[in-house]
Amino acid sequence: MPLLDRKGLKQNPFVRAEVVDETAGPNVIVPWAQVQAALAARAKDQQIGVDLPNNVAYGDVLALADQLALVTIDFPAFTDGRAFTLARRLRNNGFQGVLRARGNLIADQFPYAFACGFDEVEPSEAVYARQPEEQWLAAAGRITHTYQRNYGDAGNILDQRRAARLAKEQAHDK
Amino acid sequence: MAQPKRVPLPAILLANDLLDGDVVFSTGNGWSRNPAEALIARDDAAADRLEAQAKADFAAQLVVDAYLVDVSIDAAGVPTPRHFRERFKTLGPSNRPDLGKQAQYASAHPH
Amino acid sequence: MYRYDQFDERFVRERVAQFRAQVKRRLDGSLSDDEFKPLRLMNGLYLQLHAYMLRIAVPYGTLASRQLRQLALIADRYDRGYGHFTTRQNMQFNWAKLRDVPDILGLLADVEMHCIQTSGNCIRNVTADHFAGVAADELEDPRPTAELIRQWSSLHPEFSFLPRKFKIAVTGAEHDRAAVKVHDIGLRILRHPDTGETGYEVIVGGGLGRTPYVGKVVREFLPRRDLLAYLEAIVRVYNADGRRDNKFKARIKILVHEIGTEEFRRRVEEEFAQLDGPTINADPEEVARIAAYFAPPAYEKLPAKSNAYEAHRAANPAFATWADANVFPHRVPGYAALTISLKAIGEAPGDISSEQMRLVADLAEKYSFDELRVTHMQNVVLAHVRQADLFAVWQKLCEAGLATPNVGLITDIIACPGLDYCALATARSIPIAQALSKRFADQARQKEIGPLGIKISGCINACGHHHIGNIGILGLEKNGVENYQITLGGDATENAAIGGHLGPGIDAKDVPDAIERLVDVYLAQREDGEIFIDTVRRIGVTPFKEVFVAKTHAKSKEPENAVA
Lengths: 174, 111, 564
Hints:
The structure holds 3 protein chains of 3 kinds. By secondary structure, chain A is α/β, with parallel strands linked by helices. Chain A has helices at residues 35-41, 58-62, 82-92, 110-115, 125-130, 133-140, 157-173; strands spanning 4-5, 8-9, 15-16, 27-31, 47-52, 70-75, 98-103, 120-123. Chain A has a 6-stranded parallel beta sheet with strand order 3-4-5-6-7-8. The model of chain A has no long low-confidence stretch (mean pLDDT 95). Chain C is an alpha+beta fold. Chain C contains 19 helices and 21 strands. The interface between A and C is large, with 40 and 47 residues.
């Protein structure tokens, strides 16, 4: 499946496997149900990622966070926004690894995914066939700034207003 | 897979034009805004053809929300949907006789 | 009122361009119909029975004259010369074409308006008391809060794909005119009993629809500075834990009901405690910047009573009747707020022609500091009129058929568009409203009956708020015909209550008789000065039910007896 970040299509260094052993390669994504076994069985230099459903308790993921190089969260349907909240909760609570949105999300949700803390998106082949790379990149830049603070947009409108106010006050003081 | 139950025949097929939103009726080889021009399917083969057209024209981004509606046919051969909801759809708002198909087409008048 | 700065302006312009591109991508097949539908709904565009319908946000019901004139222009150029005000203070056009919608959005952006989140499973247009800044019982104008929430909720990255729609209402007054207890979140501005600091009472989980609930107080006092972080915590808990397996159980009211208010509060407070408030909330300067736009207009210093007004009242009984019903006291001496009823006898509730829009805009410009309000009762308010000008305004309203003296009375009926327009409806609402309006048209009789709210919905989704009508009417389908259930005792105010069923549904033609019998019970039983809802509270539903069931039962039994 294609993998995109803010710059566009990128190579996917991870492969998916049910079970981790030395033949699985250096970067392996396992299902959530297999993650404990995978972490126990991995070789020293193997990076482990996990495919999460969108309804797991985020505390359970955080407990393993420092052992996971990659966490992907599923969008069973693009209308199911739980993955956005799960991503936010992982980030709010200190998850530093790579976050990937996966499944049936659509290009129009690309900027939302970044704002909620995802680094990259792995859309389904069916969606990507209709919405190729340029549509994702165009969608990412349609709205330059939104109102919400603390959603990754350093230039959010409230902070821009605040900066303008401070600049004005400083100019006034001089 | 079980075939979803089809409405009783005779039936006409209506949809909304994607760009305009107007209610349109299948004429068998195209779409008309005039309910009097709706092709009446009296057997399953004819209904199949209407549904095939609807499917193709949905895929071609021409119409949306296409479905068969069972009708009664008056002496002049004009079809009227049996259900009141679909009757309104072929007429227009009942409180505004100056708007909708009832205002546009002579054959579409409240019964 | 609020004016866009460069950031708001750019945001709305970019949103128009975004929608234009989405329409293009729908037409070239990039977006499937299933994908496009939620996107167009989040932009207020429905596909209804006869055509597309475009719902335009009127944030917290406040409109300027130039905005109403622009709506009139859109009505003439792109629609059929009229619009419809909804129970959530928005305006709907019933005949929009998809091909025109991007251009319409551009015209709206020209006057600082939009359709953002007037539908869809996201945070909807925020509503507020339509007498904000006017009412004497107000502690604080709710609109700065509502505007802050409007901005915060617009294109929210995390909360645009919620389990279901999400409605927020704000009031700053003692008397609740914003129905905050039947919203997903209701905010009541209040003063802390000990410190005197102003903040919010936070009510969650109210709502109408299939399962009506009165909201529960989740936070008795929320400091003002914490508002956005607390809202974020509530909506996050809902987004994560709200049901998605059944559309009819997906609203936050069901979550609150199923896990209980205590557990819901615990989850929200736990989430809230994790948040870094100062990085989320608007700083006080931003709050003050918004509030400054809602500063009172430059009122003249006037005597509390206008002699000219009193003289006109004495000389002209028709004017006095209208003023009694439609004028609301203003907190500033010599001024009044007046409600323009969009419930002319026999007309569709909430409909307004483009000509009427222009007249109302002119009146607002000349007599009301250029400011209008839309009410959830589907009427329009001129918020600040000098009492001395009321007579001149009334004369102009009379010429335009806009001087119906029935605000709050039995013909001031709320009705959703119903099956005359709506694709979801199961029965018509408008003709029922029209029939009742005609039945009770007599002015003296309306006055005799006094305050009585009838609310009509054309389906279980309850856009017509039938559950909280003193008399509620719900249109359903039964055996292939329209059928109407009657409820009694609902209340939309601070005494929020859900009405109780009176009995089996009845035919459309029997509705006026049935309502008349209920009114007769009230007139026979009421004590001095008692309004309808208070009589219902005092004597209970039973006397009404007995009359209702006796009559309808007698009717429906006849054919069965005939067969036997």
